[in-house]
Design brief:
Strand content: 5-15%
Helix content: 25-40%
Number of helices: 14
Distance between the termini: 39 Å
Number of strands: 11
Strand order of the largest sheet: 3-2-1-4-5-6
Mean pLDDT: 94
Structural class: alpha/beta
Shape: elongated
Radius of gyration: 25 Å
Order of helices and strands: EHEEHEHHEHHEHHEEHHHEHEEHH
Length: 375
């Protein structure tokens, strides 16, 4: 089930962004087999409650042994794509870099995700999400007036990394249908994070964006696009960008209608923000939700990850599912003909022969491997 049904993807397991990319592909119907690197430091096998491992096959291989490398090569001959997230050169030193695997399977798409990319002066340096978004302008643009704040690891690892890797792999798979040749996808988290900032380069060119935090329309500077505390020390999110929506916001809060004349006058924003801060403190979060839920004022409750499970809209769309007692987001997006299957729990480590056979490795190749296998 799912639009990627029939695709075979190898995921050489690394840290979060790689497994998340593999989960996205598995959610969409691809047959993803995760190579757990036995004995690898810092790479723990997925627990039963690991959402990123849902719907995948699993094998434990020692990629520093000839047996482990041979198994990976057997799988690569049957695969459409392989994804990995190690520093440049690691897979080559193991003997399973792109050149080696393309000799075995010319159509293989080889997806590589790193923080800094395969080339450049930082390509061999360590880093994490916060470092990658720091060099792209993204971190500087997010946070309080005096201090940038990391937006979890959503912008770098998952948006700039996982999503661009999946996009690149699917694009390369499409091209391989025509050319008959695979290629390397170099997905750098820093590149993807920079790409996500495209809108703000446009706004800057138009004179609509300053590098001073909380002085802009979308960074908490505008009174009509920010979060306000409520009487019960919870929060509501306000996104009344358009004049018609801002008018409904004013009506619902009971603030003067002539505030609308100053919506896009930054010199008046401090005054308007102070007024909204005061009025939102007069009711609880849920009382404000009741005021605005039938309007287009773009006011919503700020829910924590547990509250989000039970919101009526999320429940109606089955945005979240429970798999063997573990709450988690459902696959997205949705498809009219090739619906994605319901997620399943992470698989147990698979039997080697059965897994290879299920992936199309021939009986003769299996027998040859077993006869040559080192004890």
């Amino acid at each position: 089930m799912g639009p990627l049904n029939g695709l075979k993807i190898i995921e050489v397991k690394g840290l979060g962004p790689g497994p998340y990319a593999g989960m996205l592909l598995a959610d969409l119907g691809a047959d993803v087999i995760v190579i757990e690197r036995s004995g690898a430091p810092g790479i723990a096998p997925p627990a039963e409650r690991d959402v990123f491992s849902r719907g995948k096959r699993r094998l434990s291989l020692d990629l520093k042994s000839s047996n482990g490398i041979q198994v990976l090569k057997l799988l690569a001959q049957q695969a459409d794509a392989l994804i990995e997230g190690f520093r440049p050169g690691v897979m080559e030193r193991l003997g399973v870099g792109p050149d080696a695997l393309h000799d075995l399977n010319p159509k293989l798409v080889y997806g590589r995700m790193t923080g800094w990319g395969q080339t450049g002066p930082l390509s061999q340096r360590a880093g994490h999400d916060i470092n990658y978004i720091a060099l792209t302008g993204a971190l500087h643009a997010i946070g309080e007036r005096d201090t940038p704040l990391p937006p979890l690891n959503l912008v770098g690892d998952f948006a700039g990394g996982s999503l661009f890797l999946v996009t690149g792999v699917l694009a390369a798979l499409w091209e391989a249908r025509v050319s008959g040749q695979g290629q390397v996808v170099d997905a750098a988290i820093s590149d993807g994070s920079a790409h996500l900032m495209s809108l703000f380069y446009t706004l800057s060119e138009l004179g609509m964006w300053t590098t001073i935090r909380q002085r802009n329309m979308l960074d908490g500077g505008a009174p009509f696009y920010r979060v306000y505390a409520t009487q019960d020390e919870r929060f509501v999110a306000v996104g009344a960008l358009e004049p018609a929506f801002f008018a409904q916001l004013l009506e619902g809060t009971g603030l003067p209608s002539d505030f609308a004349h100053h919506q896009h006058n930054p010199s008046k924003w401090p005054e308007l923000k102070a007024a909204f801060e005061t009025v939102f403190k007069t009711r609880t979060r849920d009382e404000w939700v009741a005021v605005f839920e039938q309007t287009d004022a773009c006011v919503t409750p700020v829910l924590d990850l547990h509250e989000a499970l039970n919101h009526a809209h999320n429940a109606a769309r089955d945005t979240y599912v429970t798999v063997d007692g573990v709450d988690q987001p459902a696959p997205a997006p949705r498809f009219s003909r090739t619906a994605c299957a319901a997620p399943t729990s992470p698989a147990s480590l698979g039997d080697l022969r059965h897994t290879l056979s299920a992936w199309g490795v021939s009986e003769s190749a299996l027998s040859a491997f077993e006869s040559e296998r080192e004890p």
